[in-house]
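Long-time lurker. I teach an intro course on protein structure, and each term I like to show students one example going from raw sequence to a predicted 3D structure in token notation. This year I'd like something fresh instead of my usual example. Would anyone be willing to generate the tokens for the chain below so I can use it in lecture? Attribution to the forum is fine with me.
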Amino acid sequence: MSPRQKRLLMVAALITALVVATALVLNAFRSNLVFFFTPTQVANGEAPQGKSFRIGGLVVPGSLQRETDGLKMQFAVTDQAKTVQVHFQGILPDLFKEGAGVVAQGMMQADGRFLAKEVLAKHDENYMPPEAAEALKKAGHPVGTPEQFQKAPTKP
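-- Reply from a regular --
Happy to contribute to a lecture. Here you go:
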């Protein structure tokens, strides 16, 4: 094999390795990509079926129900336009409370309820995921403290 052929073979091998590495990185990125949806989008069927996604909004006051074992619970999440029932098994974050912002990650079930694998609560009085704040603004509700949201009527 001439030196020129060896160089071409090395360049071809390097390009092939680069293409394979890029394909693996893109595949891993696509597999771990989780989209955010509001309760209105979920109710309108815009959320994927059989794939994990995040839903965010406000926990409807009075909707938290715990089963006797204390680890299974359900609560409703709203964007003040639509409400979605969320079922979760585990320990809720310390900052979780009714009327406050929440983001849950999981999948929609065939019966229309959201089965959450993870629940995240907002970290202070002013934080809300940008998508949830935008949805509340579109629904004509102010974005502010949880006390303001508790006074707003909810539509199931």
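Some talking points for your students: DSSP finds four helices and seven strands in the chain. Residues 1-33 form one domain.
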